[in-house]
Write a structure and sequence with these properties.
The protein is α+β, with helices and mostly antiparallel strands. The chain contains six helices and 18 strands. Strands 11-17-16-15-14-13-12-18 form an eight-stranded antiparallel β-sheet, covered by helices on one side. It has a six-stranded antiparallel β-sheet with strand order 1-10-9-4-3-2. A hairpin with a 5-residue loop joins strand 7 and strand 8.
Length: 340
């Protein structure tokens, strides 16, 4: 695993409600940490290893806001400082510290930054918890890199085949795509996008309304897809990608939509259908990873085309952030024509 400046960003590692119940072992950039609720009600993350005999701290329990090792009961506070050795109750414990990393709670998730944070807080999910909006969350593990996941989430042509009938179907109609580089990534807006032969749009949206569809990459590891309609309905799919390793990514997706008084009823249909669609992406990226491994474990056989609209921006931005160089300038605009 290649360490880079990408470690200076926030990544989701767990749901807040799960960590409140017990400490959790998590993986980020192929390193292992224990996350737990500390004395002040906030959350902490330490290397998941007791320095005494290398037992995982995540197998222990939380006592008065401190993590207790399950082997000999050594306790460590939120900063990783050894606070107590039960077998030596009358002595001051030695100055031993387990390495800690930045940890916070936001939007119902626990976020970690293992480097020096580029921002004091993570990027919030749009409209989550706001009046008039309905939300649900999904968590999926992909056998793919963060870049491969982001490309998949922000790639229209694949949906015609991977999600055929559910989300899109091949119509061979021309679609204009406008790519704009932004100060934090890039965005594509699609015009005249076909919605025929789609279960999603058949059930969720009147096809007579006008649709504005944008796909946005927010560096380094977030995708946001917006569908806005002339009747004021609005769907937002935001996916935050957590790099477990170079080839494995956990994706936390928040689906947030405005549908008027029928929002909670629509969720009964929309949520299970969304799980089916994203599982199709999980499956196709696993097939991709298996075949990459079969042919030597690298992506050297990739051939790119103009239809890979957002991929150059994703690659360029992530490379620049990783190396600490200048990302692509904002306000560059390119026009494409796709057939979907």
């Amino acid at each position: 695993m290649t360490m880079s400046k990408l470690t200076n960003y926030w990544y989701i590692v767990a749901r807040e409600r799960d960590v409140r119940r017990k400490p959790r072992s998590i993986r980020l950039f192929n390193q292992h940490y224990v996350v737990f609720q500390a004395q002040n009600g906030e959350f902490a993350a330490l290397q998941d290893r007791c320095p005494h005999r290398n037992v995982p701290l995540s197998e222990g329990k939380v006592c008065d806001g401190e993590i207790q090792c399950p082997y000999h009961g050594w306790r460590f506070n939120s900063k990783g400082e050894l606070s107590h050795i039960p077998s030596l109750p009358t002595q001051t414990p030695p100055n031993i510290i387990v390495p800690s990393v930045h940890c916070c709670a936001q939007d119902g998730y626990i976020w970690l930054c293992v480097g020096e944070p580029e921002s004091p807080k993570p990027l919030p999910f749009a409209h989550l918890g706001e009046t008039g909006w309905v939300s649900f969350k999904m968590r999926k593990r992909f056998q793919a890199s963060v870049a491969q996941c982001l490309e998949n989430f922000l790639d229209c042509p694949h949906a015609v085949y991977v999600h055929q009938g559910l989300f899109r179907s091949p119509t061979r109609k021309p679609v204009r795509a406008t790519l704009r580089y932004l100060s934090d990534g890039a965005q594509v807006e699609y015009a005249n996008e076909p919605r025929e032969q789609s279960l999603v749009w058949q059930w969720l949206q009147n096809s007579d309304t006008e649709m504005r569809h944008t796909d946005r990459f927010i560096a380094p590891a977030t995708s946001r897809v917006d569908y806005q309609f002339s009747d004021k309905k609005h769907y937002i799919i935001t996916s935050s990608c957590t790099p477990l390793s170079d080839t494995e990514t956990e994706v936390h997706t928040v689906m947030t939509f405005k549908y008027g008084q029928w929002g909670n009823f629509i969720r009964l249909f929309f949520e299970p259908l969304s799980h089916i669609i994203i599982q199709q992406d999980v499956n196709i990226l696993k097939k991709q990873r298996d075949n990459i491994n079969r042919f030597g474990g690298t992506e050297r056989f990739y051939i790119h085309s103009e239809m890979d609209v957002l991929l150059p921006a994703i690659v360029a931005w992530r490379k620049a952030l990783s190396e600490g160089t200048t990302p692509p300038p904002a306000d560059m605009v390119k026009e494409f024509e796709l057939f979907l």
